[in-house]
Amino acid sequence: TDLVIQPLLYFCFSPRNTTWSGTFFGREVSNAGTRKSPHCRHPLSLAIQKHPHFRALFNLSTPVLLSGGLFARELWDSLSQYKAPYGWQGLSFQAINSTLSLLNDSESSKLFAASGKPLPNCVRCAVVGNGGILNGSRQGLNIDAHDYVFRLNGAVIKGFEKDVGTKTSFYGFTVNTMKNSLISYGNLGFTSVPQGQDLRYIFIPSDIRDYVMLRSAILGVPVPEGPDRGDRFLKSKLMNTNFGDLYMPSTGALMLLTALHTCDQVSAYGFITSNYWKFSDHYFERIKKPLIFYVNHDLSLEATLWKDLHKAGILRLYQR
């Protein structure tokens, strides 16, 4: 369960108004999660505070969003002790600074600011993984009923609307997982990343290439260097990438942890459960394929964590 408290950096982009924000695990001071609303029967922050184990693992006081104005030498010195995606060890100060200096919009301090709509009294979030448990689940309407919906990687919607819904508020990825999803799942319906007026993209910088891509996306120019040279965000050429030696939580875990640190209620759909072997690896696969446990992700740890958080009443894990 140490997965909950790992510091991790990532950035959020709204194509509608080119607003960017960078994110730490923590809670936005202005977010609904710190309010004790009478209309929110089960705010997860209260459930965390009451739990003897998880209350020591969650840090809900640290601001969630890292804007350009917070990038100072002290922060650099602190995060340079950790390898990406937890920090900036071995990365170029100039490269990081040139990207973060672009995150100076006033909305960069609020994850839910892109739509311009007032926050509901109780912020309800659905995080939709791509697990095969969703195939035939008929959870689409339940997913879309949430205020915000997080999706990730090969988020195929067409043809599976009744199972996974149609609403997307946030789409999360690393450059590597995004490109690999386009390569691997293109023939299954994932031919481009989700797009929409109020949709925001969450970049997870697992290496310097993510910062380079992020900066190019903000400026609307092709990537100037590295393995993605010439690429444009949303118009990326497909390519294979080498797997690095970094362990990190899965993209689904990162999106779920994001929601747990920003929302009042969180429901997890399409995540690994104890009976994962009954279902295909992904819900959009035409032929059943077993879930593969790659060395760079500890899916067993994640499965235990989701089960424990569900049991503690901190999140609702969809199970069959």
Structural class: alpha/beta
Strand order of the largest sheet: 3-2-1-7-6-5-4-8-9
- Our measurement of the CA-to-CA distance between the termini, rounded to an integer number of angstroms, reads 23 Å
Q: Give the overall form.
A: globular
Instruction: Please provide the count of β strands.
Output: 9
Question: Helical percent range?
Answer: 10-25%
Q: Provide the low-confidence segments as ranges.
A: 1-8, 16-37, 235-246
Largest β sheet strand count, sense and barrel closure: 9 strands, mixed
Rg (C-alpha, Å): 19 Å
Beta-strand fraction estimate: 5-15%
**How would you state the average pLDDT, rounded?**
78
Helix and strand sequence? EEHEHHEHEHEHEHHEHE
Number of helices: 9
Kindly list the characteristics that best describe this protein.
globular; alpha-N-acetylgalactosaminide alpha-2,6-sialyltransferase; EC 2.4.3.3; disordered N terminus; 9-stranded mixed β-sheet; 9 helices; 320 residues; GT29-like_sf; alpha/beta
